[in-house]
Specification:
single chain; about 400 residues; alpha+beta; Rossmann fold; SH3 type barrels; Elongation Factor Tu (Ef-tu), domain 3; 3 domains; six-stranded antiparallel beta barrel; five-stranded parallel beta sheet; about 30% helix; tRNA processing
């Protein structure tokens, strides 16, 4: 009998994933991860209720339930990273880092080595280029074993059948080794079908839950109140990008991300964050939700993590490749051109301008339904407003 460890979050998707695995005749163990210590801060956290809901799923399915604790690992490898990124003026994505460093590393190791599982499964809406039996056949003695794969025989991460629920964005930093040992039971299903299966199985307690929109494993919080428990206030000014006028003050540049509305005292019109300067503490703002200072068409990443372990053959050969890009989960894909640098970083040139491209977020790349991988956005090109201003000054200087 094949042994599969299914990561349970307390939500409907992972519950149905576990159910589908049991229907295939696998020996399934549900595992709930506790990654956040609620005693470390003052707000409420839903972790205990999540754990209870996951346990009830296992009782309904008559499968073993385990709970594992990665509070220290989460603190050092996800939350500390998050705080450091905010201090650097960037906006991190903890969900992507949690998958990379916790779920698809520590939990996978626990599943394979401690519980002796043949594979791990999660409730992500994603697919791969391998079937279940191929996953089982790949089991090796140690999760730390090195995988040497040529690009053509590597396991590919493919988008889900339900495009509106596809979650490959959040998996874009996991290792090839982890992907080779993971099953995604929901990859071929639409969300409405998953809910129907849950209702028929009696998972009414998870169907009542709303989908989490908060920080991975921390939950929904009032961001300013939460982050100021870990970072000292660093007052600065809101500065108009158009004329340099000081519009108001703030408690710290790390409280704001590009594209966010800046609620400035005494201002009745809507102003939006378009840039930040951490050396001065200035947060630059512009009037209106679609100001040209919000739009850019180029960026540079750090060294890209390629799901297959290597850059696509076309990019290796030509140093240039056409594909698609997004930096937010629900953002429509945008055509782009990648230019690979010798250090593994890439320049991304977009076919059209995109609103609020944000340093610290991940540029995730796709081609023909495959998630190729991702790189953290380190630099952003000039905004359309700045480009226009340069052209305007050039024209005034050289009227001929």
């Amino acid at each position: 009998m094949r042994r599969v460890v299914c990561a349970l979050s307390g939500g409907v998707d992972s519950a149905v994933a576990a159910l589908l695995l049991t229907r295939k005749g696998y020996h399934v163990t549900g595992v709930f991860m506790k990654n956040w210590d609620t005693f470390d801060e003052h707000d409420t956290c839903t972790t205990d209720q999540d754990c209870e809901d996951a346990y009830r799923v296992c009782k309904i399915l008559s499968i073993p339930f385990r709970q594992v604790f990665y509070v220290k690992e989460y603190w050092h490898e996800v939350f500390s990273y998050l705080i450091k990124e905010y201090e650097m003026g960037r906006t991190p994505n903890p969900d992507i880092m949690c998958n990379k460093n916790i779920k698809f590393k520590y939990l996978l190791r626990f599943a394979m080595e401690t519980l002796g599982a043949d594979s791990m499964a999660t409730g992500h809406y994603a697919r791969t280029s391998q079937g279940d039996e191929q996953v089982f056949q790949r089991k090796s003695g140690s999760i730390e074993g090195i995988c040497h794969n040529h690009y053509n025989d590597a396991v590919k991460l493919l988008q889900a059948a339900d495009p509106s629920k596809d979650q490959t964005f959040f998996l874009s930093q996991i290792s090839q080794h982890a992907l080779r040992h993971t099953i995604f039971p929901l990859g071929e299903l639409r969300k409405d079908v998953v809910k129907k299966i849950a209702a028929e199985a009696g998972f009414h307690h998870v169907l009542k839950r709303k989908e989490s929109m908060g920080i991975c494993f921390i939950g929904e919080r009032k961001f300013e109140k939460f982050i100021l428990q870990y970072l000292e206030p660093r007052p600065g000014n809101f500065v108009s990008i158009e004329d340099g006028k000081i519009m108001g003050t703030h408690k710290g540049w790390f409280l704001f991300t590009l594209g966010q509305r800046a609620r400035i005292g005494g201002q009745t019109d809507a102003w939006f964050v378009v840039d930040k300067e951490i050396s001065t503490g200035d947060v630059f703002v512009a009037p209106g939700n679609s100001h040209p200072a919000l739009y850019r068409d180029s960026l540079q990443t750090n060294s890209v993590h390629w799901i297959t372990g290597e850059p696509p053959i076309e990019l290796q050969r030509d140093k240039v490749m056409h594909c698609n890009f997004r930096f937010q989960h629900r953002m429509p894909l945008v055509q782009c051109t990648l230019t690979r640098n010798p250090d593994g970083t890439v320049w991304v040139t977009l076919a059209k301008t995109v609103r609020a491209i944000t340093p610290g977020q991940f540029a995730v790349f796709y081609k023909d339904g495959e998630c190729l991988g991702s790189g953290k956005i380190m630099e952003i090109g000039p905004s359309m407003y700045m480009t226009h201003q340069v052209k305007k000054r050039t024209k005034l200087t050289n009227p001929s």
